[in-house]
Amino acid sequence: MKTVKTKKTAFNAIHHILGAKMVEFAGYEMPVQYKGVNHEHAKVRSSIGVFDVSHMGEISIQGKGSLELIQKVTTNDVSKLYPGKIQYSCMPNDTGGLIDDLLVYKISKNDYLLVVNASNIQKDLDWIKRHNSFGAEVTNVSDSVSLLAVQGPRSIDVLQKLTDINLKEMKSYTFTIGEFAHIPNALISATGYTGEKGFEIYVENKYAAHLWNAIFEAGKEEGIEPIGLAARDTLRLEMGYCLYGNDIDDFTSPVEAGLGWITKFTKDFVYSGFLKIQKEKGTKKKLVGFEMNNKGIPRHGYEIWNADQQIIGSVTSGTMSPTLKKAIGMGYISAEDSKPGNEIFINIRNKPVKATIVRPPFIKK
């Protein structure tokens, strides 16, 4: 049996020097935490933190037919993009589920960059190539790119020290390519996964250490700190953002997951006919958010009950919210039970623990 070697990002040695707790994640050795989840979570909410997200995948789609190909494999309307604009989207499979959720960057005419989840890089690549009857050039550039996400209310103040690009003028879900920390052709995007102000910075691997050092030097006065994957998860869950593999997967549709807003039926895409019927007629299950009324942390896979202790769904994500000081979660339940304000029960070690359905985000920004 062939052993698959765990990959390392260009920042791996830095994480070890800083004493990070490292784990295997999506085929990479990644930092799960440094000083502790709650501390790191609060640092991002109150000030500024830096995530190594170089494990994410980048797929370049260029040339004639690139627009048509992306329109075919994604649900959102790519024709609405202009150079410098980013779009959140997803790729449906041919059974009504999701291959992946992703970001689509329009670099220029016939030049796009797709940023995909680390665990799905090869699956996404195979799927895109399978549907490439348009003659587009599809290239996996993931292994040549290093990526840092700098998040928190002080992120603009810190990063502005390193570039002449006016970061305050950058609107959410836009990007620019230019010099950053004396690094040429850095891609700077006003995106993130935390709900806070922030940016993601893409550079060639050879500039990785320089980028890290420059950002941490610039943020020294603001108490900048590195943040691990565990806090990234609690931060995104407080905002009600879906995590692929938990809240969305090959067996959940974008309509069920509340992603109808990125599912546009003004164009034809993979399995669009089925999804259009779903949107018009409704679904049997829906993804909902909930807050626990009593003590107990909902975990992935826990059953969700109604008042009669009948199973009506299951938990997809759950945690103790460091901001709210109460447990929160998301899960799929029967559509008839999904109204905000409804009481549900989470089966925690065979005991029904009361919760209330709420509409995410759990914290208002």
Task: Describe the structure in your own words.
This protein is α+β, with helices and mostly antiparallel strands. The protein has 2 domains: 1-239, Probable tRNA modification gtpase trme, domain 1 (Gyrase A, domain 2, 2-Layer Sandwich); 284-358, Elongation Factor Tu (Ef-tu), domain 3. 19% of the residues lie in helices and 35% in strands. The chain contains 8 helices and 20 strands. Strand 11 and strand 12 (183-189) form a beta hairpin. The longest helix is centred in the middle third of the chain and has 11 residues, at 208-218. The radius of gyration is 21 Å and the shape is globular. The mean pLDDT is 97.
Please report the number of helical segments.
Answer: 8
- One letter per element, helices H and strands E, the order comes to EHEEHEEHEEEHEEHEEEHEHHEEEEEE
Describe the main β-sheet briefly. Answer: 6 strands, mixed
Number of domain modules: 2
Name the helicity range. 10-25%
Q: How would you write the strand order of the largest sheet?
A: 11-12-13-10-4-14
- In whole angstroms, the N-to-C terminal distance is 49 Å
Structural class: alpha+beta
Low-pLDDT runs: none
Condensed summary:
With 365 residues, this protein is of the alpha+beta class. Helix content is 19%, strand content 35%.
